[in-house]
Amino acid sequence: MSYAEFYDSFLQHPLLLWTAAILGLLLALSRPGLPATVRRYCAALATIALLDAWLTTTDVPGIGPLTGAAASFVPLAFVLIGDFRFFLFIESAKPDGTVATSAGAWMRASAWTLLVPTGSQLVVFTLGSNEPRILFVIYETLFVVLSIGLVRVYLPRRSRALLWTRRVTWFVMAYYALWAAADAVILTTGVDVGFLLRVLPNVLYYGGLVPAIAWAAPRAPVP
Question: Does residue 151 fall inside a structural domain?
Answer without folding.
Answer: yes
